Amino acid sequence: MSVLETCMMMGLNFAGSSEFAAVGLWASLLPIVMIIAMTAMINSCHILMGAAFVPYLHEMPLRKVLPALFVMVDESWVMGIADAKKREQEGLPPFSYPYYLGTALTLWVFWVSCGFIGSLIGPILGNVSKFGFSMAFPAVFLVLIRGMWRGFQAEIPRLPTC
């Protein structure tokens, strides 16, 4: 895969896990249907993340909602939801579109930029697993989970009241 192809894929498919799966599959004889199916399956969690955003985005025009959903990844979603809950507690309008989009676009720019740099220096570095980078994804998710953790009582499902 060329540097240009890598950057195009990273910019259009802004989702780390599915990109790793796609690149692994891309090494074989280009199984497009399999790549699409794997990407859809891995990113199906975005259905729930998008549903959690509905209360904050439902009054916005589609021209604002679609870019917000395009750059929605685990990190931007967590930061957007956490900011909305904080703003609600402070008596402010819950969702700050500029904050969310600024956070998400920053993540997108860094993702594509770092992918570009990585595709250039990757062949020089060789197998990067010797540097311990395989711990990066679990570490990021642990930090995200810790940031949203409110204790065991907050995690118990409750039936809605009428």
TrEMBL record:
Transmembrane is among the record's keywords: yes
Pfam families associated with the record: AzlC
GO terms under biological process: L-valine transmembrane transport
An example Gene Ontology CC term for this record: plasma membrane
Membrane topology: Multi-pass membrane protein
Domain of life: Bacteria
Compartment(s): Cell membrane
Protein family membership: Belongs to the AzlC family.
Protein name stated in the entry: AzlC protein
Natural source organism: Kingella negevensis
Lineage, broadest ranks: Bacteria, Pseudomonadati, Pseudomonadota, Betaproteobacteria, Neisseriales
